[in-house]
Each structure stands twice: as C-alpha cells, then as structure tokens.
Design brief:
This protein is an all-alpha fold. The protein is built from 19 helices and no strands. It starts with 10 loop residues before the first helix and ends in a 12-residue tail after the last helix.
C-alpha cells in the first residue's frame, strides 16, 4: 500500500490519536513528576527511582508473558480500558495519600508505574499498529508530542505544589486527572480493536470497499492466532536486537534525564536565568520536543524506521558531545538536542514492529520488542542518578550518552530488513503457510 503524505486520519483515527496522546501524558505524570519534583516528600530520588525501575521491569516481564497469546486475545481495546481504569485509581491514590503515609504512597506509585506502562506504551500502542499499519510513524509522531508537553509543565507544576507553603499534591495533579478521565472515556466510547469494526478504514484508506476491508480484518484476526513469530523465534533473530537496542538506548537517556532535569540544570544555577532558569528550560524542552516528535514521526513514515532511528541517534550523539563541555550554553544546547528525540523515542517500537514484520505478526512482535526496549528505559532513572552523583559529576552522564550513542548507531547501520524477510520465509515454510513478497522492499 502506498504511504500517504497527508495527515487526514479520519474522525475515529483522530480520536485514537487523542486517546494515545492523553495516555502518554498520564504515563509521564505518574512516572516523572514524583521523581523530579516530589522525591524529597517520599524518601528521596534514589528510593523512588529504585521503585520505578523494579515496577517497570515487572511490567516488562508481564508483557513478555503476554506476547505468547496476545494474538489470541479477544479484545486488546477492552484490555487497555481496564488497565486505564486501574491506572486512574492508582493516580488518585498518589494524589490523596499524604506524605505521612509514605509507605502506602510508594505502593500506589509503584503500581501506578506498572499499570501505566502497560496501559500507555503497550495496549494502546498495539491499537495504533492495528489502525495505522503503514502510517504509524505520523500518528505516533503526533501522539508522542505529549511527552515534551507533559515534561514542559513540570515548572508550573512545581510552583503549584509548593506555592501554598505546604505540598498541595492533589491540587497540582487535579487538572491532569480530569484530562485523563476524558481521554479514557474517548477510548471507551469511540474506538474498537480494528477500524473496520466501527465503520472506519485501516490507515483511513477509503479506496477499498467495506466488504474487502472486513474480509482483510477477519483474515488478519485468524492469522494472528497462528503467528510464526513466537517469543523464542523473535529473540533468536539478530536483526531484532540490532534495531531494539538502539530504540531502548533512546528511551533510556531521554526518560532517564527527564527524571533528573532539575538536578542537571542546577549544575549551572544562575547562569541560565537569561532563558528563565528551570521553568524556561522546561518550556524550551517542550517546544523542541514537540518539533522533534512530529518531524521524526514524518521521517519515520517517509524514509522508514531504520533511517529515522539513525537520525535520532545522531542527535543523541550530538547531545552527548555538547553535554561534556563544561559550559552553561553547551548544556542548554545539549538539553534541546535531548528534547528533539525525547518524544519520538517512544514512537519507534510501534513503527519497527509494524514496518518490518507482517500485520498478522505485529501484536506478537510488539509484545516482545516493546518490553525489551523498555528494559533499558527502566534502568534510565537509576543509571542517570548514579552517574549524576558520581565523582565525575553531571558530565559522566553525557560521556556515557556519547558512548552508547555510537554503539547504537553501529547496530542500526547493521540492521537489515531483508534478513527478517528471509527468516519469515523460513518460519512460514516450516509452518506450511504460503510465501509471498509482503515484506519485500521494506526500508
């Protein structure tokens, strides 16, 4: 199918974008705000980052377990709705439990991280792949703008929390909580597992008849039950690792640094007042993050995921080089580079699974590729905190960023879609499935 250059996604398609956008905001609010703003109220950043890492890894393990039968799940959308509701309840606990009951608050936070990652980055991202298999880069490029916007609101959030002379955590979270409820209701009311189930079209492509679209959907649902890309076969594929590790590295450093932005910027306290200090820098991160998410999403759709990932990693390498320079302006430019790939880093796992494997294998592949990439993401806050407070200080963060960036770029350049097709042919032949050129010419 020819890739469309317009962003006409249809009414239901835009509802899905809004649904995913708000879920990403919820994910950021649950994960990053406590680490960046509220840590001292509940035992410190080290303790909270440790809980974040443990609960994220638990979520990853659950995703890997689900990968074995996600293709046979009757409704991913219903599964996502349940996860979203649980996440909302846990967020309410984060808002209401006082700091005097920090143990109970930490339990609520940890479970919020666990269910939030399952909701926003797993279940809903599968829906995006099922609705927009060839336009997922553009769709996720728009949806992931939520990450820089949410992080850009950290400054006003901090002001709201402490402006009354006491931590008003409930008041600070309330506007977000209301928006999250609206997003959850949008998904519940307007969306189905497949666009054909509610009168819409895959990729909003209206060139086919409803009968043909319905037949394609039913064939895909049936083929998902017998996918040849089981977890073992996926993990044995070298090219799976060549594309997944770089995507995980992008997530690791974007998410990890966002949880320690205040401490990193604080290394040059007073020297960045000309851009508004912490609040001004977070606004710049928001602006350039939105630009980067959208542009890298378009490049993903038009050039292919491999090239878009390589471009993002090159920006990551530049961020590492600039951050090593002991200068406030260099640090500011480094943080802007970081913002450019921050939102897009959560886009690529959906794109890679949808682009380099068959539609019928997408959910099973994504259920492996996303959690494996998120293993590195889970380590981000802890690794960044350890490096920040090491004897080499904040510069060690950017030294490691540079090294990992170079390794990731090499792996990305080694990635070959043609080898995935060769393995796909081998597995399908062994399973008695027909061979075709469905994966030929993937970039």
């Amino acid at each position: 199918m020819e890739r469309k250059k317009s962003i006409n996604l249809g009414f239901r398609g835009w509802m899905l974008v809004i649904y995913q956008f708000i879920a990403f905001m919820m994910y950021t609010a649950i994960n990053n705000y406590p680490l960046n703003i509220l840590a001292d109220l509940y035992g410190g950043a080290t303790l909270i980052s440790r809980i974040y890492t443990i609960c994220t890894i638990l979520g990853i393990i659950i995703q890997l377990i689900l990968s074995s039968w996600i293709g046979r799940m009757k409704s991913v959308k219903r599964f996502g709705s349940v996860l979203g509701l649980i996440s909302l309840v846990l967020l309410l606990g984060i808002m209401l439990i006082p700091s005097s009951h920090s143990g109970l608050w930490l339990v609520s936070y940890g479970l919020g991280v666990l269910f939030g990652i399952m909701y926003a980055t797993f279940a809903l991202s599968i829906l995006v792949g099922q609705w927009f298999p060839t336009r997922k880069g553009t769709v996720m490029g728009i949806a992931t703008i939520a990450f820089p916007i949410a992080n850009g609101l950290l400054g006003p959030f901090a002001t709201r929390v402490f402006s009354k002379g006491y931590p008003d955590v409930f008041g600070a979270y309330l506007p977000f909580f209301i928006v999250f409820i609206i997003g959850w209701l949008i998904g519940l009311i307007f969306l189905k597992d497949y666009p054909e189930q509610c009168g819409a079209y895959r990729d909003n492509d209206k060139s086919m008849t409803p009968e043909i679209a319905q037949a394609m959907m039913l064939e895909e649902i049936e083929n998902k039950k017998t996918t040849v890309w089981k977890i073992g076969a996926t993990l044995k594929c070298p090219d799976f690792w060549c594309i997944t590790i770089p995507m995980g590295a992008l997530l690791m450093f974007s998410v990890g640094m966002m949880t320690q932005t205040s401490a990193i910027i604080g290394q040059f306290e007073g020297q960045l007042d000309f851009v508004g200090g912490y609040t001004g820098i977070m606004l710049l991160i928001c602006i350039f993050g939105c630009i980067g998410s959208y542009i890298l999403g378009l490049l993903d759709t038009r050039l292919g995921t491999r090239k878009a990932v390589a471009i993002a990693i090159c920006i990551m390498i530049v961020a590492g080089i600039l951050g090593i320079i002991p200068n406030a302006i260099a640090l500011l430019l480094s943080m802007i580079c970081l913002a450019l790939f921050m939102g897009a880093s959560s886009n690529f796992t959906v794109s890679a699974a949808a682009q380099y494997w068959r539609r019928e294998d997408f959910s099973s592949i994504f259920a492996v590729i996303n959690p494996v990439a998120n293993v590195l993401c889970a380590l981000g806050p802890t690794v960044i905190a350890m490096l920040l407070y090491s004897s080499f200080g904040y510069q060690s963060i950017f030294i490691v960023t540079l090294i990992i960036g170079i390794i990731s770029l090499i792996l990305t350049l080694l990635f070959r879609p043609s080898r995935i097709k060769a393995r796909d042919d081998k597995y399908r032949e062994a399973a008695g499935k027909p061979l075709d050129d469905a994966l030929a010419g993937r970039k």
